[in-house]
UniProtKB/TrEMBL annotation:
UniProt entry keywords in alphabetical sequence: Carboxypeptidase, Hydrolase, Protease
Enzyme class: hydrolase
An annotated Gene Ontology molecular function: serine-type D-Ala-D-Ala carboxypeptidase activity
Gene name linked to the record: dacB
Lineage, top ranks: Bacteria, Bacillati, Bacillota, Bacilli, Bacillales
Gene3D superfamilies membership: D-Ala-D-Ala carboxypeptidase C, peptidase S13, DD-peptidase/beta-lactamase superfamily
EC number: 3.4.16.4
Family to which the UniProt record says this protein belongs: Belongs to the peptidase S13 family.
Protein name: D-alanyl-D-alanine carboxypeptidase/D-alanyl-D-alanine-endopeptidase
């Protein structure tokens, strides 16, 4: 019977030849938990990890913050003024807004004042990661990091796939939100859209162009000011909750303080938010994790402090930190690590007390998150993994399970890619090969 090593080794060059990706750099690290054997193909070379960088961030967040960690949003009020104090909640949205307003109504509040100030000082440092491309900053996946966040700090348009050409619309719940846009779009039958979003400086005026997928006819753009967006959305939710809402409002950035009544609402625990990082690959949530790690550890620059804590924690675990770790999400092209390093992190997490939370946060091949559209492997084989995609970069790191038992830990990283679909075919072939070997051993 051919060993799994014998099956793997020809895969890389054959894929390069058949796909035309002759210039691609392929690195793979693999560990068999049953045989206690390792395999490597260019596995110690530094490569761009893309969103596989989130694995470092989320693993250290579980260690430093704990699975039950929560962010808190406070509202201080008098009859004539509200002050919203952001605590960094990365998932604040309709549910949290309604809970906060319900608390106010329980205290007898029946109207929203015309003055709504905000305290966004909990995260006083950088709004974007080091090395984020300027052209990305208007895109929904590159929303700015604030202590006061609402609906991932992005605006979402939808189009009807039955229309002859894409006509973007905002949901009715956006109410009086001031957003202007011009779109020049065409339909594509591909699974993925190829759309560019551009926003004018210091405004919510957008230009949107490209090819929109009929299968997923949605476009997102980053808001210019999350605190302003927060207040506008809160006004809408207040009106829906039956509070009297003024036609206009004024407000400014202020520090918390003074004799005001207070109420607040907590975020869900970290263990419930982590799937947004690893399964759905939400960059904003990952960056807030890094900010929070830094804030809870002290210091002045939360980002730099967070980076130092990540590296210190990895060393304490006996792991070599990435060659370059510059943001929490992996959106930066400046990050560097090797497949071997990611594989060793995943191996270590198998024995971590929060492993079940960590594993459950990963996307399931063919079922959830960024892997939902992939072809699942035949039962009882399942794969839980983190994807990573940037221009020219495609990565996948995670676990292959037989039933509930992890069998393989792997990291497959490809840089210098021409077509993403080519690497997805390689990932599929790689995982099928491992699954076939398990079946052969069983038979």
């Amino acid at each position: 019977m051919r060993t799994w090593r014998d099956r793997l080794e020809p895969l890389w060059e054959r894929w390069k030849s058949e796909s035309g990706e002759k210039g691609a750099q392929v690195g793979c690290a693999l560990f068999s938990l049953r045989r206690k054997e390792t395999y490597g193909h260019r596995d110690e070379e530094w490569m761009i990890p893309a969103s596989n960088n989130k694995l470092w961030t989320s693993a250290v967040a579980l260690e430093r913050l704990g699975a039950e960690y929560r962010w808190q949003t406070l509202l201080e009020w008098t009859e004539d003024r509200w002050l919203i104090v952001g605590g960094g909640d990365p998932v604040f949205g309709q549910r949290q807004a309604e809970a906060l307003l319900a608390e106010l109504k329980g205290h007898g509040v029946r109207r929203m004042p015309g003055r709504i100030d905000w305290d966004d000082s909990a995260f006083p440092t950088r709004r974007w990661g080091t090395g984020w491309a300027r052209d990305d900053l208007s895109e929904g996946y590159a929303a700015p990091v604030h202590a006061l966040n609402m609906e991932l700090n992005r605006i979402a348009w939808v189009a009807d796939p039955e229309d002859p050409y894409p006509r973007l619309r905002l949901p009715p719940s956006y109410g009086t939100l001031t957003v202007q846009w011009r779109s020049h779009l065409s339909w594509t039958e591909e699974e993925e859209s190829d759309v560019r979003v551009m926003r004018a400086e210091r405004s919510n005026r957008f230009r949107i162009e490209g090819a929109l997928s009929r299968q997923d006819p949605q476009v997102t753009g980053a808001v210019w000011s999350p605190p302003h967006f927060f207040m506008e959305r809160l006004r809408w939710f207040a009106q829906e909750q039956g509070l009297a809402v003024p036609e206009t409002w004024t407000g400014r950035r202020r520090k918390s303080g003074g004799r005001m009544r207070k109420t607040g609402v907590d975020s869900p625990p970290l263990k419930e938010c982590l799937a947004l990082v690893n399964a759905d690959s939400e960059n904003l949530v990952a960056e807030i994790l890094l900010h929070t790690i830094g804030r809870e550890s002290g210091g002045k620059d939360w980002v730099e402090q967070g980076i130092q804590i990540v590296e210190q924690t990895l060393r304490r675990w006996g792991l070599e930190p990435p060659a370059a770790f510059v943001d929490g999400s992996g959106l930066s092209m400046h990050n560097r690590c090797s497949p071997r390093q990611l594989c060793e992190l995943l191996r270590l997490m198998l024995d971590h007390p929060a492993f079940s939370v960590f594993a459950d946060s990963l996307a399931v091949y063919g079922q959830t998150g960024t892997l939902k559209k992939r072809n699942p492997l035949p039962p009882p084989i399942t794969v839980r993994a983190k994807t990573g995609t940037l221009t020219g970069v495609k990565t996948l790191s995670g676990y292959l399970f037989e039933g509930r038992t992890p069998v393989y830990v792997f990291s497959l990283m490809v840089n210098g890619v021409r077509e993403e679909r080519n690497v997805e075919n390689l990932q599929d072939a790689f995982l099928r090969l491992l699954a076939d070997h398990i079946r052969d051993e069983r038979d």
